[in-house]
Amino acid sequence: MKIARVALDVPLDQAFDFAVPEGLDPPRGSLVVVPFGRSSRVGVVVARPGRTEVPAERLREIARLVEDVAPLAERDFELLEFCASYYQRPLGETLHASLPPRLRQASRRAIKSPGAAETSRGPFASPVETTAEQSAAIERVGEGFGRFHPVLLAGITGSGKTEVYLRLIAQALERGLQALYLVPEIGLTPQLEERVRGRFPGVAIVAAHSHLGEGERAQAWLAAQSGRARIVLGTRLAALSPMPQLGLIVVDEEHDPSYKQHEGLRYSARDVAVRRAQMAGIPVVLGSATPSLESWANAKQGRYALAELRERAFASASLPAVRTVDTRADKPVDGVSDALLRALKARLARGEQSLVFLNRRGFSPVLFCRSCAWHSTCSRCSANLVLHLKAGELRCHHCGHRERVPARCPGCGSADLAPVGQGTQRIEETLARGLPGARIARVDRDTTARKGALADVLGQVRDEKIDILVGTQMLAKGHDYPRLTLVGVIDSDCALYSVDFRAAERLFALLTQVAGRAGRAGEPGEVLIQTDFPTHPLYAAVAAHDYAAFADAALEERRIARFPPFAHIALLRAESKHAGEAAAFLRSAAKLARAAGGKVEVFDPVPAPLERKAGFDRAQLLVRAASRAALQPFLRRWREALLEKDDRRVRWSLDVDPQEA
Ligand code: ADP
Ligand code: ZN
Ligand code: ZN
Fold first, then answer.
1. What is the CA radius of gyration of the chain?
2. I need a labelling partner for 227 at 20 to 30 A (CA). Which of 141, 447, 539, 604 fits?
3. Are 155 and 289 in contact (CB under 8 A)?
4. Ligand 1: which residue has its CA nearest to atom 19?
5. Who surrounds ion ligand 3 at CB < 5 A?
6. Is 436 helix (H, G, I), strand (E, B) or coil?
7. pTM
8. What is the CATH number of domain 3-104?
9. CATH number of 132-309
């Protein structure tokens, strides 16, 4: 009897053996429909063992082969095996996470194959001459076709990184290879897709992102897998698209945290892309104006080649002048300082556009003294105490220390203590009051919930029907508005004192990106940052447009604190509806971790940054090792021990290389 071992989308590590019916011989990677309980499911054949432990009377038969989907190629299969193993998830779940939802359905209509339609192999013309720096960067990457060649493209905003990517993609196509082009934000893909299609006429290009309909997604996946699609352009999930002739990977905005998936298979699409390039023996370009410290360190240590673009591509486009507004002297009224209001008025009078940017990315509030800049820190950790307003306490999220909120500043005795916090809506109202007649649009998660809403607003900005845009990090990158000359930044101080060790890196990246919106085409740009700390070195580095200085100083801090990239970390997260159980689970998990041995440092359990969510108490436990080689086998042993505990009152998950720790 022939046997097939089949992985199903279940939260279990094991695969299931089935008998193979007469006439079928599905190789590893085949999709099959199998009976499961009383229903049927799609599964993936992971092995063809010679025998099975399942007794003959309990062995069920494969119902049928999924005929309109070719088996996963061995190389794509191995990439998914790597993901499952590295991110500590069951293989079945990982395989299924990589498949479009339509292909996971046991009963569906057959998908029509559009046939092999002929694709252009160029040559492809470019509308611009490359600058000397761009040419050098293209050469630096292009010399690595046909071998593993990771390159960090560190190029300031407006330096023309996209032109570099497009020229390299043209080279890949001309060599008869497929190219994978990853971007972080869904909102940016339609604009970019248009540009890429215009650049490569006669080439089959597919977009792959979560806003596509199920049918479109399945078509895109199949086109990539068959090799018909020559370019796959997409977000995080596109990193796992099967591509038999893959010859080049581009990861734009490689520092962007949205490359990390936050549930299920918690993979980093950027890291997977590099690993994939290594397995396939091809070049991978990681591009950014503000590279992640991990990638910057890799480039400095020679593991990645480095290509730099230090000038804007337009000779006339200079970098904006960045200034701080001292909000201790110029006290904002309802969030907006007098200096910012005056600058906005001047733009309105000249018919130019402005962007008012709020940084509200999940930072925990820290208590500040507005007189002497004292802020609440933990005496036992190099960390800030987080304000828990309801409980009236300051708490350390690293060691658990807590104390009452002081009535007066312990530094100077002033009673002017305050957390910071402004909403986009409130700023929009303030501006409407202060600038009557101005056409203001707000862009945040609320106003862009509807599909196409963001594109509508951005179209209106482009058509100059809007004077002032108010919004959050959605506006920070990618958009290019010739008439936009002023960027105001509100409320970024809290990130200076966040408990998250990546907060400063994120803030630098965000401010650089958002500043990059101003003065893209000839008109000089200005950036005003409202702050209580006008002399803070981070703002000075943003103003000097000096990423390298910032990154080198930040890396030195990471080295001393032994945080990534100088160590490798994983986070065990637990949550429970029963008070105290998440923490209790983590305490015993910490014991197991210490017993599991290895050269791994086990921290103490602490509350999650968001301590309570949807009725669940949440806590987390950090483990740290000097190398991946030390961390990985430990995680495998630890996870097995945790699975054995099988505590049903607690939900837990492991996050390898967490982005929020
Ligand atoms: P980045 O992604 O590095 O911020 P972009 O790729 O958006 O920069 O390029 C900024 C602007 O410069 C775009 O309008 C682009 O069309 C233009 N550009 C890029 N390269 C050149 C070039 N070689 N000559 C003229 N304009 C260019
Ligand atoms: Zn004080
Ligand atoms: Zn502490």
1. 27
2. 141
3. yes
4. 160
5. 378, 380-381, 396, 398-399, 401
6. coil
7. 0.87
8. 3.40.1440.60
9. 3.40.50.300
